[in-house]
Design a protein that fits this description.
Rossmann fold; alpha/beta; seven-stranded parallel beta sheet; globular; 19 helices; 2 domains; 17 strands
């Protein structure tokens, strides 16, 4: 692809056409439909190599924000998990609902780490629950208030033992290996980057073969009536076991879902996913219409977002300040932070500017964005500062494509999106006139002084009475109403 063609939209459209031309969704390796299991990973790799890395300076790329998982750390983590007997999933009793989180807990003002998607359900629904949680970067966020929680580190240990002793490996024929090499060559030809498809498929299918028996054992012990998961892509092994046992799987929306999110978007007639959740509980009616999901619309249920709803009520008395809140992300933080600094240097611009870092930027921002340290911008670089409180007190929100953009809109903030890589994700917001796209700080200042905020249906993105909605829909599914 030419450099001029490097946009999310162009890359996505080329990718889905590639899938259809190669008929990838119907192909099997080791008798498994492999493409639906690795699709998100492959597109993300292409996106990173062709677009996002092109947007970031070398010194940011070379910064090791995430330590490589080495054997010592793995061993230490396994040892900690083993010693915490009460977190062993194989010792649990029967529960009505399995909750499977995405491990992205947030530290609250009281010092506890809270899962904003599943902890509300554990407290509110009228069913017994057990929460499955994986470590994130070899750490568990604690202390937590979650009562019935087990660590899937135990499964990781058993899978690693099989790997060490070379057990339960998937065998691919020479023809299958050659087929994957040919597809890798086609990806290099059409997208200009090399991806070792043979290795990725082998690793994915071998992990599937090794871990599914353990998921089956857990299902046999717990005997759940339903499973509720956060972020379905990457959990295909668990979903497959649930489907084999006729257990309905419900996914809770956890972020922005658009046409360009290949974890959810299946536009072409040939694009299908057998191991997709049976139901998708969305934040609001907006999300039901903007994506072609691999399930019928009857299985897309608008329920709302409990965390947002509760926080809005808590901060409804907070008064607005003449304050601009920037929402950063690692992929665009370099340019967005420079935009914020340039905005702060405009004469007679008297807004206070707050720059909220993404958790993945917290430990490296001083090296990667040194200009922020020498500005009059307040940088929020620690856990425990509540984002919703910042929403409540700020008049203006600036970002690119974060989920926080939609959350900020529910606080009636004037919202501006900077024209950087990834803005295609939120093109519908721009087209609808709800937000304003800007390319330069001066443009933002001019629009801010001349235009009033757009009004829209308050429940467009987030339906009200979320907890009751979830309880009602869950009852219907479990009781097959």
């Amino acid at each position: 692809m030419k450099k001029s063609d490097l946009s999310l939209k162009n890359l996505y459209e080329k990718f889905i056409q590639f899938e259809e031309d190669k008929n990838l969704f119907s192909k099997k390796i080791a008798n498994v439909l492999f493409w639906e299991r690795i699709r998100f990973q492959i597109f993300r790799l292409i996106l990173q190599k062709r677009i996002y890395f092109a947007e970031v300076e070398d010194k940011v790329i070379k910064k090791k924000d995430f330590k490589l998982i080495n054997y010592y750390l793995k061993f230490h983590n396994y040892l900690v998990a083993i010693l915490r007997i009460r977190r062993n999933p194989f010792l649990v009793k029967e529960h009505d609902i399995i909750l499977f989180s995405n491990s992205r807990r947030k530290k609250q003002e009281d010092g506890y780490w809270w899962d904003i998607y599943t902890d509300h359900l554990e407290k509110e629904i009228n069913y017994s629950t057990i929460l499955f949680e994986k470590d994130i970067f070899l750490k568990y966020r604690k202390p937590v208030k979650t009562e019935n929680m087990v660590y899937l580190t135990y499964l990781d240990l058993l899978v690693d033992l099989k790997k060490y002793f070379r057990r339960s490996r998937v065998k691919m024929s020479d023809e299958e290996k050659q087929y994957l090499k040919n597809i890798s060559a086609e990806i290099r030809s059409q997208f200009g980057c090399f991806i070792d498809l043979e290795y990725i498929v082998y690793h994915n299918l071998t992990t599937r073969k090794r871990v599914m028996p353990y998921y089956q054992k857990l299902i046999n012990k717990i005997k759940p009536k339903a499973a509720i998961i956060v972020c379905s892509y990457g959990k295909e092994d668990f979903i497959e076991v649930c489907k084999l046992n006729m257990i309905p799987v419900i996914e809770l929306q956890h972020g922005v879902m658009t046409r360009y999110h290949v974890g959810y978007s299946y536009e072409k007639d040939s694009a299908k996913k057998s191991n997709f959740p049976d139901y998708l509980f969305t934040f609001g009616k907006y999300w039901k219409e903007v994506v072609s999901y691999p399930i019928t619309k009857e299985k897309l249920v608008n329920v709302g977002f409990p965390e947002l709803e509760i926080r809005k009520q808590r901060y409804q008395a907070v008064k607005k300040k003449k304050q601009i809140l920037f929402i950063s992300q690692k992929t665009i933080g370099l340019k967005l932070s420079k935009f914020a600094v340039e905005l702060s240097q405009i004469r007679n611009f008297d807004y206070r500017i707050i720059y909220k870092l993404h958790p993945f930027e917290v430990f490296s921002w001083k090296e990667n964005y040194p200009w922020l340290m020498h500005s009059n911008i307040e940088v929020v670089d620690h856990q425990g500062v509540n984002l919703y409180h910042l929403f409540a007190e700020s008049e203006v929100l600036v970002g690119v494509y974060s989920t926080a953009i939609y959350e900020g809109l529910s606080f009636q903030m004037r919202t501006f999106l900077v024209n950087l890589t990834g803005i295609d994700y939120v093109e519908h917001l721009i087209q609808s006139g709800i937000v304003t796209k800007v390319s330069k700080p001066e443009e933002l200042v001019n629009v801010l002084s001349n235009k009033s905020a757009e009004r829209f249906d308050a429940e467009l993105f987030f339906k009200a009475n979320s907890i009751n909605n979830i309880k009602e829909e869950l009852n219907k599914i479990i009781n097959k109403i």
